[in-house]
Design brief:
Blueprint: H1 4-11, E1 56-70, E2 78-88, H2 90-95, H3 97-107, E3 119-121, E4 124-126, E5 128-134, E6 140-145, E7 148-159, E8 177-182, E9 193-201, E10 210-223
Antiparallel strand pairs: 1-2, 1-10, 2-5, 3-4, 5-6, 6-7, 7-8, 8-9, 9-10
């Protein structure tokens, strides 16, 4: 497997469309200087998500499903949670944001991997970092297992995904980008905020009454 540094250098010479059929977000910085934290991508919308105020801890690729319920075929889909495996992409983020942003459009198109298995995309192996789910009270939970850290989150802001975002295998569209912070009265460990960005798929359109699950992938940037 080529090193992350060789990937970074190669991406300076190779058009990104050669490694991804999706249209990634233009990065704020491709290859950060050693030790320099990468910058969050921007949507290009009139209103962006709030800027980070904490230190970047981890960057993950989330691959899973967004869950909805539909009252009828013509009603709007109501989000009721999500389940995803988080894969560690921190090193890749520090080496090349271009390579990082190419991952979600590819990941959403592959079969759901086993939660304990690594994934290999664009010649980059990403190991499991943890899980994302919603608890019984509907609180978003991010449970990182290596190392052990957790975030019980509450949504602070959202913005629509860029028009160029991957619509996912069903072609229904990409879910919003989000900014979440630690939820009061809950005890988070080592993490204070997370951004969901570069979303691919995950949007639902009701075609009948009942539950609906939609494939999605996204980047999660954790701060603490």
């Amino acid at each position: 497997m080529p090193s992350l540094r060789s990937i970074c250098v190669g991406l300076l010479l190779t058009p990104l469309l050669q490694i991804s059929s999706g249209a990634p977000v233009a990065p704020a910085a491709d290859c950060p200087k050693p030790g320099q934290a990468p910058s969050l991508p921007l949507t290009g919308n009139p209103t962006e998500l709030p800027a980070p105020t904490l230190a970047l801890k981890y960057v993950a690729i989330g691959r899973g499903i967004q869950n909805y319920t539909c009252a009828s075929a013509s009603s709007p889909a109501v989000a009721i949670g999500a389940i995803a495996t988080l894969y560690d992409a921190t090193s890749l983020a520090y080496m090349s944001t271009t390579a990082l942003h190419a991952i979600p459009p590819m990941a959403v198109m592959i079969p759901m991997p086993k939660s304990s298995a690594s994934i290999n995309l664009a010649n980059t192996i990403l190991k499991p970092l943890g899980n994302h789910y919603f608890d019984a009270a509907g609180t978003p939970v991010f449970d990182l297992t290596t190392p052990k850290k957790s975030l019980f989150a509450a949504k602070v802001a959202n913005t629509t995904a860029p028009a160029t975002a991957s619509k996912g295998p069903g072609g229904q569209g990409a879910v919003d980008w989000l900014y979440l912070t630690s939820k009061p009265t809950y005890t988070s460990v080592g993490l204070g905020a997370v951004y969901r960005v570069v979303t691919a798929g995950g949007k639902a359109v009701c075609t009948q009454a009942g539950p609906q699950s939609v494939q999605y992938a996204a980047e999660y940037w954790f701060y603490g």
